[in-house]
Design goal:
Length: about 80
């Protein structure tokens, strides 16, 4: 099991379970398509472990929504 999942630290860092899931899914897809990891110590780690380490080390974050998305959300 991924040790990071035993703690709520990663969930709080991203801002919730939904955001965490979206971020992990997006980054995992990038890695699977050939993107290079943003951490150096990847030896012996699975891709999902790499993603969690990138999040915990502030290498990847959820970006601010675009102005267009904010307008759409305000109308709802």
């Amino acid at each position: 099991m991924i040790e990071e999942l035993k703690s709520d630290e990663v969930i709080k860092k991203v801002g919730g379970r939904f955001k965490l899931t979206a971020l992990v899914q997006r980054r995992l897809g990038e890695l699977m398509q050939g993107a290079r990891p943003l951490i150096e110590d990847t030896e012996g780690r699975t891709q999902i472990e790499i993603v969690f380490q990138e999040i915990l080390r502030d290498k990847i974050t959820i970006g601010e929504p675009s102005a267009q998305l904010k307008q759409i959300m305000d109308k709802i």
